[in-house]
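Example 5.3 — Putative zinc-finger domain-containing protein
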Amino acid sequence: MRSCRAISALVSQGLDKELSLRERFSVWLHVMMCTRCRNFQTQSRFIRKAARRYTDELQSRLSNKP
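Solution (predicted structure tokens):
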């Protein structure tokens, strides 16, 4: 099994690119057993989604400016 450090790196990479089947399975298996990594994955997804919404809203407001 991979270390928490390796899994957190894969989780971060998975936000930016498609992971291989083996990498996705490694992450899935690890987060099923590791609460800390599961929390890291959840928080990373939340931060990514919040940042995306913020930039979309900012872009929308700037493009609608008179």
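Remark. The mean pLDDT is 94.
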